[in-house]
TrEMBL record:
Residues covered by region (Disordered): 18-50
Organism encoding this protein: Methanobacterium spitsbergense
Compositionally skewed regions (Basic residues) per UniProt: 24-50
Probable transposase IS891/IS1136/IS1341 domain mapped to chain residues: 1-88
Protein name: Transposase
Amino acid sequence: MGLTHFLITSKGVKVNNSRPLKQQLKRLKREQRKLSRKKRGSNNRNKQRLKISKIHERIMNIREDFQHKLSKFIVCENQAIAIEKLNI
């Protein structure tokens, strides 16, 4: 189960999840698999850990940027904002 659209406004504007985020999550998955094959304590494992931490940082920046741009769009385009909590 997941979201088909990240946001739908009352005017019918649909906002999907960020595509670069999906690409980075796929890359993170691949790099973590590479890390799992490295021997503990080796220099190559430490280098791989650094690669993964950079990908995590990039993902964080993409999410923050997407949320900031989306919040600005919502505030500028609408007069009232309502939030619904779904119990699934």
